[in-house]
């Protein structure tokens, strides 16, 4: 049975591969990926007002203020293509943002259907991020910023997992393996919840 909606969140430390897996899963389900990091980076590249506001914050590996971030997500999720579902990547990132998202979704009687937690050991994340720094030259991929972002993940983002676990919607997925293996693990977990491929 195919669920009527697929409102998903993918969580994991930076370097867990959540961006790559998120795109694969969203394509299979024919839903848009909503990545706050991508939205911020696109704005920085285009030199928008928002981009100018957040450049220094991203470079330092700090979090953009909650209200500003939540406003951007609310706008994006209000677009037509997100009506049937979406895959959030990078938001919510702390418990305040969980409350903002809950309040927004509740207005239409909606809620997240599943939270995919990609489990990757810290050393593996660090190694993958250092490689990405070399390959993509991201300005927030310095060793210092990477370590800072992993600390923020452990202190601020990891706690949101227990909030969602209490709701029984978290699927913990082993994030070590080949890309295809990991995608298959996620697809199986979602299928077990009645969220099946559409394309
Ligand atoms: P990401 O691509 O998800 O690793 O995000 C890159 C950067 O964008 C983060 O280090 C933060 O500076 C900022 N960012 C992304 N998502 C959020 C969020 N939900 N709340 C605050 N800042 C965010």
Describe this structure in words.
The model has no long low-confidence stretch (mean pLDDT 92). The longest helix is centred in the C-terminal third of the chain and has 24 residues, at 143-166. The protein has a five-stranded parallel sheet, with helices on both faces. It has a domain at 6-35 and 85-192: Rossmann fold, CATH 3.40.50. Helix 4 packs parallel to helix 5 (95-106) and helix 6 crosses helix 7 (143-166). The chain has 199 residues and is of the alpha/beta class. The two termini are 14 Å apart. It contains eight helices and five strands; from the N terminus they run βαβαααβαβααβα. 33% of the residues are buried. It binds adenosine monophosphate. Adenosine monophosphate (AMP) is lined by residues 14, 36-37, 40, 57-58, 61-64, 69, 90-91, 93, 97, 140, 149. Pathway: Purine metabolism; AMP biosynthesis via salvage pathway; AMP from ADP: step 1/1. It catalyses: AMP + ATP = 2 ADP.
């Amino acid at each position: 049975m195919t669920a009527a909606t697929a409102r998903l969140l993918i969580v994991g430390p930076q370097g867990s591969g959540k961006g790559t897996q998120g795109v694969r899963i969203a394509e299979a389900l024919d839903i848009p990926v909503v990545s706050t990091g991508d939205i911020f980076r696109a704005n920085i590249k285009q030199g928008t007002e928002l981009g100018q506001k957040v450049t220094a914050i991203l470079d330092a590996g700090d979090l953009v203020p909650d209200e500003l971030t939540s406003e951007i997500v609310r706008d994006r999720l209000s677009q037509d293509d997100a009506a049937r579902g979406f895959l959030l990547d990078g938001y919510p990132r702390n418990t305040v943002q969980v409350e903002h998202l809950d309040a927004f979704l509740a207005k239409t009687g909606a809620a997240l259907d599943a939270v995919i937690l990609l489990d990757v050991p810290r050393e593996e994340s660090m190694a993958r991020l250092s490689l990405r720094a070399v390959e993509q030259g991201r300005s927030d991929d310095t060793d210092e910023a990477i370590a800072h972002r992993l600390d923020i993940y452990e202190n601020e983002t990891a706690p949101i997992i227990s909030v969602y676990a209490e709701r029984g919607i978290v699927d913990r997925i082993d994030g070590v393996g080949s890309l295809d293996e990991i995608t298959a693990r996620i697809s199986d977990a979602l299928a077990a919840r009645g969220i099946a491929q559409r394309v």
